[in-house]
Amino acid sequence: WLWFLLAALLSPAMVGLRMDFSVLLEPLGFVKVLEWILAIFAFAMCGGFQGEISLLVSCKDVVNKTITAAFAYPFRLNTVVFSAPDPKGCGGTWTDAYLMGNFSSSAQFFVTLAALVFLYCITALVVYIGYSHVYQQNNKFPLTVNLAISVLTAFLWLVSTFVWAKALADIKVSTGASMIPGIESCKAPGTTCHFLSVTSMGILNVSVVFGLLNMILWAGNVWLVYKDANLHNQWNRISESP
Questions:
Q1: pLDDT for 121-149, tens place per residue?
Q2: Residue 50 and residue 74: Cα distance in Å, rounded?
Q3: pLDDT digits over 79-138, tens only?
Q4: How far, in Å, CA of 165 to CA of 152, rounded?
Q5: Element (H or E) spanning 72, and its range?
Q6: What are phi and psi of 68, to 5 degrees?
Q7: pLDDT tens digits, residue range 156-183?
Q8: How far is CA 10 from CA 39, 137, 212, in A?
C-alpha cells in the first residue's frame, strides 16, 4: 500500500486526485474504517493505563500507615517501589521494596502493532478515497499486497493479543495480595503488611478483547480481499473472452 500510494502521488497517470467517499460504504472501505477505530481503542486502553497499589503497614513507632506504589504502561514493575512508611524507615528495618516482573516487551509489542495498524489504515483510506479510480483500473498488484499485509496483520494481532493476555495475568499476580510474602521488609520482626487495594484493571481486560476483535476483523479482511481478487480475475476473463 505504501508503494501504491507513492506511485499514485508520483506517476503522471495517477496524479488526478478524485475524492470519492462512497467507497467507504463498500466492504473493503468500511472494514478499513472499523480497523482504524479498533486500533485506536486497543492502543489507548493499554498505553494509557495508570494504576496504584496500596498496603497497610505497621512497624516500630508506626501503626496502620498506608503506603502506595504507582505503576503504568509499559509495566516495568521491577522499577516500582514502596517507600518507607516513615522518615526513620521503621527504626531502620525497612528497605525500599520493589515489585517483581518486567512486562514491557509484551505491552509494547501490543501497543506498537496497534499504532502501526492505525497508520496503515490511514494510508489505505487515502488510497481508497482519493485514488479509487486508479485502484479499479489496475488493482492486481495492490490486491496482492493488500492480501499479504492482511494475512500478516491478522497473525500479528493473534500473537500479540495472546502474549499481552498472558502478561496481563502475570501483572495481576504481581500487583495482588500474593506479592506481600516477597517483600523482605514485611518479614522484619514487629512489622506487618496487609494488602489494601489495587487499581481496577478492567480497562486492560477490555484491551485484550479489542485485540481479539482486531484479529477477527483482519481475518475477515483477508476473505474480503481474496473475494475481491477473484471477482477481478473473473471480470478479466469475461472481458478477454471473444
A1: 998 888 777 766 556 665 565 667 778 88
A2: 10
A3: 999 888 888 888 888 888 888 899 999 999 999 999 999 999 998 888 777 766 556 665
A4: 20
A5: strand 62-72
A6: -130, 160
A7: 999 999 999 999 999 999 999 988 888 8
A8: 29, 17, 37
Other CB atoms within 10 Å distance of the CB of residue 144: 12
- Whether the ω angle into residue 74 lies within 30 degrees of 0, i.e. cis, is yes
8, 131 in Cβ contact below 8 A?
Answer: yes
Instruction: Give the 3-state secondary structure of 160-226.
Output: HHHHHHHHHHHHHHHCCHHHHHHCHHHHCCCCEEEEEEECCCHHHHHHHHHHHHHHHHHHHHHHHHH
How many Cβ atoms sit within 10 Å of the Cβ of residue 214? 26
Strands 50-59, 192-198: parallel, antiparallel or unpaired by DSSP?
antiparallel
For residue 77, what is the DSSP state?
Answer: G
Burial class (CB in 10 A: 0-12, 13-18, 19+), 200: exposed
Residue with cell 503504568: 72
CB of 58 closer than 8 Å to CB of 90: no
What are 15's three cell numbers?
496524479
- pTM of this prediction exceeds 0.85: no
Distance (Å, rounded) from C-alpha 60 to C-alpha 4? 70
Distance CA 37, CA 47 (A): 15
